[in-house]
Amino acid sequence: MKILIVNTIYAPFKVGGAEVSVQLLAEELVKNGHSVLVVTLHDKANKEKATINGVNVHYLPLKNIYWPFFNDGEKRKKWEKIAWHVIDNYNFKMARLFSEELDSFKPDIVHTNNICGFSVSIWKEIKKRDIKLIHTSRDYYLFHPSSTLYSRNKNINVNALSVKLWSFLKRSASHRVDTYVGISDFIKTFHINNGFFKRDSAFISITR
User: Fold this and answer.
1) pTM for this one?
2) Which CATH code fits 2-205?
3) InterPro entries, from UniProt (predicted)?
4) Where are the domains of the chain?
5) What angle do CA 5, 191, 141 make, to 5 degrees?
6) Could you say which of 38, 60, 113, 193 would form a disulfide bridge with 7 (CB–CB 3.0 to 4.6 Å)?
7) Strands of the 35-42 sheet, one edge to the other
8) Contact yes or no for 117/8 (Cβ under 8 A)
């Protein structure tokens, strides 16, 4: 089976546990005889390719106003941060770039994980090609730019106007997903109860 895996960051770069678990998944799928392509992002201007432990990896350039994922010591202005997230709410340029990967690899299944930088726009490209789509939620990215739902030393109310505005397009786009995986039972239930993903999807939680 041809499986395309998406994650914002991938080896040799690492931010947190998501990068580790996605790498382990990709390598295990290869060991089991599947053809696996990981599509991820990097801070370079052009696409690059690598093979890591048998996994083919394509690093795409981020089409946004700056690279935010590693702290380079540069302070960003508030308007720059807002503009970045407005673009990331539905990034048309990343959708076009990602569609080239779909047309070249022609996967049977796409498994998206952290998609910050890609945006939910890639889900439309996947389903336009009638490809099965699995998504794993590892945080609250679909709700708010603060993917922890925590800001200024307090939790962000999920019913706040800012959450509703930031999540509107993402909530609608989530209904394109065929199978939804929550990294925990709490995250799974939290998304479902707030209107994300199709009710008739096979909802799964990795841990309980």
Assistant:
1) 0.94
2) 3.40.50.2000
3) Glyco_trans_4-like_N, Glycosyltransferase_grp1
4) 2-205
5) 55
6) 113
7) 48-52, 55-61, 35-42, 2-6, 109-112, 132-137, 179-182, 204-205
8) yes
